[in-house]
Amino acid sequence: MGALKPWHIFVLVAVLVLLFGAKRLPDAARGLGRSMRILKAETKGLAEDDVDGKAEAQSGRAPLEAQPSQPAQPKNVDPVERVRDIS
Question: Is residue 64 included in any domain, yes or no?
Answer without folding.
Answer: no
